[in-house]
Every structure is written in structure tokens, then in C-alpha cells.
UniProtKB/TrEMBL annotation:
It comes from Phoenix dactylifera (Date palm). The chain crosses the membrane at residues 98-116, 136-155, 167-194. Keywords: Endoplasmic reticulum, Membrane, Transmembrane, Transmembrane helix. It is a multi-pass membrane protein. Coiled coil: none annotated. This is Reticulon-like protein. One of its GO terms (biological process) is response to bacterium.
Amino acid sequence: MSGHVENKVENILNTIVDSIADSVPNQKSVRFSEEQNAVTAQMNKLFGRRKSIHNILGGGKSADVLLWRNKKISSSVLTGATAIWVLFEWLNYHFLTLLCLALVIGMLIQFLWSNASGMLSRSPSQVPRLVLPDELFMNIAVFICAEINQFLGFIQDVACGRNLKHFLMVVGSLSAAAVIGSWCNFMTLFYIGFVCAHTLPVIYEKYDDQIDDLVYNLIGQLQSQFSKFDKNVLRKIPKGNLKLKKND
């Protein structure tokens, strides 16, 4: 009799639980799965970034130029840089020669403007003058000085940090940069970096998922190779004891 009562109570409880489960809408599970997928996709972003490429680049006019928000301005900047590189590298012009030619052309334009306006009209028009603001050069100098000091501080921290892995990685990177620098001069390297800055961000913004997967696969392979190198080479290097032992 007691067993029959227990079975009846259990059946009633199961019916109540099933009815509650059926009454709950399935949207919660769908939303939960969507949120979980969104979190997973966010974690798979390159270097765990949570901001857009536009915000990472500063979010101002410079970011608009790098991401080709205005194609006319971006193409004009890239065309101007290409023209300068062609003049210096292909046509073998020197900076002083181009500067003097630009000054001569500017003086001729101002001379013709002032004289032609005086002959054609009784009231000559004012010739526009080019004046560079002082804040521009001050901001450029402060920015360059801050970047150089940050780089020097990083190099000295790695050199004095007693971390052999970081030290070898930085030395290897500088050696690779030295080898690349021996292939081409500073102007060509600067132009290559300028072109990459105007092409890679917009390409990554358009194909970020594919690039993230490729980079993570590459990083995984590099980590596996470095772990083998660490196990077979670095860990076999004897570590010297820096503490001096007192003689009894």
C-alpha cells in the first residue's frame, strides 16, 4: 500500500515538472546559445580585442584615412607617398634638389599672381601665404621623443630582466630587422610600412574572422616549435648561481 502511494506521488511530481518545463519558452535557451556563441567569437578575436579596428586606430580622421572611409583622401595620400618614393628611389632625386625646386615653383606662382592681379585689376588681390603652425612641430617632436623613450625603456628592461627567453626573442627580432635593412634602404622600408598601414587594417576589417583563424593556427605552430626548442636546448643550458657563498 505504501509503495503504491509513493509511486503515485512520484508520478504527480513528474507531471508537475514536465508541465513547468513545457510552459517555459524556448527563447531563453536560444538567447543563451546566441550569447555563448557571441562570447566564444569574442574570445577568438585576435589578441582578445573587444574594440573595433576604427577605435583601436584612434577613431579620428587618421583612422578614417587608414580604413578608407573617404576613398578620395586615402587614395590621394597613398598616391602622394608613392610619388615621393618614385622620385627618391627610381629617379634618384635628392631631398635638397626637390626642396629647392618646390621653393622656386612657389615663388614663381606668387610672383605671377601678384603681378598679374595688379595689371588686370586696379586693386590687386592679396597673395596667399603659407604659414606652418608651431604646435604641429611641437606635437611631432613630443610624439617621436615619447616613442623613442618607450622603445629604449623596453630594450633596457629586457636586457636587465634576466629572462633568457625574452632576451633571445628580442635579439632575434633585431637581427631579422638588420637583415631586412641590408636588403633595402630606410626610404623603402618606410614606404613599405606606410603602404601596409594603409592596406592591412582595411583588409583585416573586411576579413577579420578568416585572418584570426589563420593567425591562431600560425601561433599554435610557433608555440609548439618553441616548446620543442625550449625543451631540447634552453632547458639544457646550465643556470649559474648568482649568490656568493660565504666561506666558513
